[in-house]
Design goal:
6 strands, single chain, 157 residues, Nucleotidyltransferase, domain 5, alpha/beta, 4 helices, six-stranded mixed sheet
């Protein structure tokens, strides 16, 4: 499916990027013009009573940003196939779409967490600090990759 304009042709849009994981979910947010990505938060499943409570908190965090669209990292296997995590991301995406009246895009990803870890090591962060922000940095990579696409290359979920 091709991308649709959100607020009119060429309008600036603020985005939230999500790196959904089985134990932690990283969030990133763009500037209001939708040009740059910044770390926002990490939601760890262990701090919630279950996945439903995590999803509710995720929806609240997205709404708090006043973003105009959501970008979900869609993980694929090295051979391009789908994994259990890929299917879970698709499921979570549908649940988010039902709760928020926002366009949701998929950004195919492979190794975003590995690349984020490399970025954080190069920045000189100690291991304990890297663990705390790794998922946010992966979300930043996903969102930055999406923002680098031309609008006609962006795909709605």
């Amino acid at each position: 499916m091709t991308a649709l304009p959100i607020r009119g042709q060429g309008a600036a849009v603020k985005y939230v990027g999500i790196d959904y994981g089985l134990s932690r979910t990283g969030l990133a947010v763009s500037d209001p013009e939708g040009r740059m990505a910044f770390p926002l938060a990490t939601l760890a499943l262990r701090y919630f009573s279950g996945r439903g409570a995590l999803l509710a908190a995720l929806v609240v965090r997205i709404a708090e940003t006043k973003a105009g669209a959501v970008v979900m990292g869609l993980p694929f296997l090295a051979d391009g196939g789908e994994s259990e995590t890929t299917r879970q991301v698709r499921n979570v995406t549908e649940r988010i779409r039902r709760r928020l009246a926002l366009p949701v895009y998929f950004m195919p990803e492979l190794l975003s967490t590995v690349e984020a870890l490399r970025d954080l090591r190069q920045a000189g962060l100690r291991e304990s600090r890297r663990r705390a922000v790794l998922d946010q940095q992966a979300a930043v990579r996903i969102l930055a990759s999406f923002l680098a696409l031309r609008p006609d290359e962006r795909r709605l979920a």
